[in-house]
Amino acid sequence: MAIALCAVGCSRNTTHSDQTKLEPAQVKVALVPGGPHPYFQPWKDALQKAKADFKLGDVTFNETSAWNQTTQNSVLKSLAAQGFNAFGVFGVSPDTINSTFGDLHKQGFHLASLGSCPAGDTDNADFCLATDVRQAAYKAAKSAIAAMGGSGNLVHLTGNKTDSNTTRRIQGVQQAIDETGGKVTLLQTVTDIDTDLQTAQKAVADLIAAKGAQINGIVTTAYNPAVASAAAVKAAGLPVKVVAIDDDPTILGDIKDGSVTASVVQNPVGQAYVGSYALSKLAGGCTMKTSGQTVDSGSFVVAKDNADTYDTQRQQQTAQLRKDFDDKYLSCS
Amino acid sequence: MRIPFWANPRLGLLVVIVVLVAVFTALRPAFLDVGLTIVPMQSDLTVFVVVGLAQLAVLSLGHMNLAVGRMAAVSAFAAGWAYDKLDVPLPVGLVIGLAVGALVGAAAGWTIAATGVNSFVVTLALDFALIGLVSLLYSTFSDGVAFHVAPAGLDILRGDTFADYCMGDLCGPPIPLVVPIALVAVVAVGVFFRNSRLGREILMTGSNVKAAELSGIPTGRRIIQAHALSGLLAALAGFLLAVNNGAFSADIGGSFLLPSFLGPVLGGTLLAGGAVSVLGTVFGAALTEVIQTGLNLLQFEVEKFKIYIGFVLLVALSLDRLRHVLAERRSAAPAERGGTA
């Protein structure tokens, strides 16, 4: 049909939606994680708090994408069809989510990449509010190396190899190892074990059975391997220093009893709360001073000495993030 | 025995699809939103129809292709590499991807024909090998796990519909530009199995390999050709997904396996081989897509979503089977009574 039309002379019709200024009550925010994962659970409460604090029209949390980019695209379009007009998205595939953001942007929706930024140098969302995963992995590896006494064999347990975030984490760990000038060796990087706890437990058990005696430290940059390695090292009674990620109660307990050295904790609450705030501002007519700006939501090394107090630090970081959006990142006339 | 027209499985599926569309529309009028529902559904459907055809190509033999997703991934890598490193035009990259898919498929077919090992085992092993290969290829040849190149025309193919092209006030329908590519595949595979000698011989091989051999059909070669066709169609599905998603990445094909079986099997293709239904595959894939979109619109929680998608599929299949059994009984009844009715 297009060929037939164009054969006799056609024009390409390129229409862009006009972005209108919305009152907070007209703003409907949808937060869409990549799929079900404990990391996203704090988003639910933070979203409800944002709804009440910023008097948003409606909010929803939808994790049905189940780690499939095609499904996530359908979920986002379905939510848009139902009237949601601002989206905070953890893209399943950092390599392709930018195209989805571009599509939704063209249709006049406001978008934040939350928890994970698209791969590459550009972000078609209005902004990205996420942990700098390379930096967090670097911090975690530095902690593990320090706990090992600055030398020995380190193992890195992480997520999906085909996720560009995993590539960044591997780079962060490698940077910390390189800085030791050869005193620390990366014994192995184990990928694709963050799908569920059972997979992670099996991988860790295999690793300890095969190389337990050689391992001086384990750094985990994904949730399930962190929980699995903490439990396995404790059960085996090995003198292995474990640095975990996030603040699962099990991990916090292990930090307190000394079986886990430290954990690099992220700020999912801040991502959801401040992300919703910034989206409501953008819908209200503000613009980002730099479109696609990346903002680090913060990561904190939690050890025995600050296991009870780190959340205060995280709340301060969240308050600071909101202030930074007002003062530095948003332009509101 | 002739089955009445109302027991035709394709018609049954069409009725179920129409009923579900009506139900979902009644519950959520946004189901008929052109830009946000209808157009994306068609784009997704092109991928699932073609991946269904890729599985159908080997189901015709009574075989399976468990490596359908990884064949798509390897082919998408080849196309992405060609765009990124060789700077080839859009159609040339597509041809390279299709050729790689066909070659990998032919290699699987050759292994099955030469060794006599079950296709299930061969393609499962191939799938494992290709998972590793794809990761290795991307880490060697790209900076990350994807090629972010956009050859001329890719963005247009991805984002435009025929409605974007107008002559005066006359614009095309809201059908994405990728749809004709899938349509060509549907028609070509349909004609191949219905009208070509090669296609008929593949079906005969699937129906009874000994009888086919005794009839002078080179069954080994037909097995290789059917698997090559499967690889080629998997490659096309991978290309369409890469176009829809906007990048040639390592995770392409990761979720192809289940839809590849759902389309043909819902559509009436026999797992035992010897009979295929191309139109049924289109309807089977469409049914799955309608259910998925409808449940998305109803915003089910993730666990309930999976339960309901399984439940609706089961009900759809059971109703279809019930209708078929009733039709068989009705046709058989007159014969038992001596054909007097």
Q: What does the model show?
A:
With 333 residues, chain A is α/β, with parallel strands linked by helices. Chain A has helices at residues 2-7, 41-54, 69-81, 97-106, 133-147, 164-178, 197-211, 223-236, 249-257, 268-283, 310-329, and strands at 11-12, 28-32, 58-61, 86-89, 110-114, 127-130, 152-157, 184-190, 217-220, 241-245, 262-265, 287-288, 293-296, 300-302, 330-331. Chain A has 11 helices and 15 strands. The model of chain A has no long low-confidence stretch (mean pLDDT 90). Chain B contains 13 helices and 4 strands. In chain B, helix 3 packs across helix 10 and helix 11 (257-266) packs across helix 12. The interface between A and B is large, with 50 and 53 residues.
Observed structural traits:
heterodimer; A: alpha/beta; six-stranded parallel beta sheet; six-stranded mixed beta sheet; B: 341 residues; two-stranded antiparallel sheet; 72% helix; 3% strand; disordered C terminus; transmembrane helix (chain B); cell inner membrane (chain B); transport (chain B); transmembrane (chain B); ABC transporter permease (chain B)
Give a short summary of the structure:
The complex is a heterodimer of chains A (333) and B (341). By secondary structure, chain A is α/β, with parallel strands linked by helices.
Helices, strands, pairings?
The complex is a heterodimer of chains A (333) and B (341).
Chain A: H1 2-7, E1 11-12, E2 28-32, H2 41-54, E3 58-61, H3 69-81, E4 86-89, H4 97-106, E5 110-114, E6 127-130, H5 133-147, E7 152-157, H6 164-178, E8 184-190, H7 197-211, E9 217-220, H8 223-236, E10 241-245, H9 249-257, E11 262-265, H10 268-283, E12 287-288, E13 293-296, E14 300-302, H11 310-329, E15 330-331
Parallel strand pairs in A: 2-3, 2-4, 4-5, 5-6, 6-13, 7-8, 7-9, 9-10, 10-11
Antiparallel strand pairs in A: 11-14, 12-15
Helix pairs in contact in A: 2-10, 5-6, 7-8, 10-11
Chain B: H1 9-27, H2 34-59, H3 68-86, H4 90-115, H5 119-141, E1 146-147, H6 154-159, E2 165-167, E3 170-171, H7 179-195, H8 197-207, H9 209-214, H10 219-245, E4 248-249, H11 257-266, H12 278-297, H13 302-336
Helix pairs in contact in B: 1-12, 1-13, 2-7, 2-10, 2-11, 2-12, 3-4, 3-5, 3-10, 4-5, 4-10, 7-8, 8-10, 11-12, 12-13
